[in-house]
Write a structure and sequence with these properties.
Length: 240
């Protein structure tokens, strides 16, 4: 397959062109200005991706805290993985990569999400940083992760019945001491708020951000609280 390389701005525009927008001003009424739309694959309803502001936030967290080894649970069609990889690419002396996992269970789109994710990787200059795997969060660790090697996790798979906490537990042995865990959909319609509170018992501080779907970021090293808050501010300004 031929590989095309385009600038970041062109790539973002090209990705958006191939998707359908939903929730034009954000899913939640209390979302900050500049929120929305979130995205779905053209002609589908699910899965739904983060919006651009949330994507930029992921990108900024990664680059401002110098993350290297990222795991994402819930690829969807690769939109959030794109922003994480852009953050890795912008990190000074970056040698990192993101491994993203999906069971393909949501929305009945089969392999289309996985294939779209691969096509995003092919169109950008840092596509080699993105690795997409078909599989469940339950099997990730034992397959190939090294103990205490993962410094950022984005949990955006099944949001119900404590599964986000189970996702965290499956990765816990592989997290560095200063790991950052980012949670999408910190919203009462899901179990995510309870799951985040449970993780705080492991010594994490919880930070909540009023993005389209509301995100929580849990940090164990207090050094990262301010850079994460700054990352949100930068993302809001970039989207304003
Ligand atoms: C909200 S979507 C992810 C959107 C993506 N993070 C983005 O913003 O571009 C959730 C995805 O998680 C997947 N999923 C659900 N449970 C999972 C699990 N236990 N392990 C891995 N993926 C899972 C679903 O198939 C779905 O594609």
């Amino acid at each position: 397959m031929q590989t095309r390389r385009t600038s970041e701005i062109e790539t973002i525009a090209e990705i958006h062109q191939q998707l359908d927008p939903i929730w034009p001003t954000g899913r939640r009424q209390d979302a900050v200005a500049g929120s929305g739309p979130n995205w779905v694959l053209r002609g589908t309803n699910r899965p739904v991706s983060v919006d651009e502001l949330e994507g930029r936030f992921l990108c900024e967290i990664v680059s401002q805290t110098n993350r290297k080894n990222v795991v994402e649970i819930g690829t969807g069609f690769g939109y959030s993985a794109f922003w994480i990889a852009l953050g890795l690419f912008r990190t000074p002396k970056s040698a990192g990569e993101v491994h993203s996992f999906d069971t393909l269970q949501e929305g009945g789109i089969g392999r289309k999400g996985h294939e779209f994710a691969q096509s995003i990787a092919e169109m950008c200059s840092f596509g080699q940083l993105m690795n997409f795997h078909i599989g469940s969060s339950r099997e990730i660790g034992k397959n190939f992760l090294r103990p205490r090697s993962i410094d950022l996790v984005f949990i955006d798979g099944d949001h119900n019945d404590g599964q986000p906490y189970q996702d965290y537990l499956s990765l816990k042995p592989f997290l560095t001491d200063d790991a950052i865990v980012v949670w999408h959909d910190h919203d009462d319609r899901y179990s995510v708020p309870d799951d985040v509170n449970r993780v705080c018992r492991d010594g994490y501080e919880k930070l909540i951000f009023r993005s389209s779907c509301q995100m929580a970021v849990t940090v164990r090293d207090p050094r990262w609280s301010q850079p994460v808050k700054d990352a949100f501010q930068t993302s809001c300004e970039a989207k304003a």
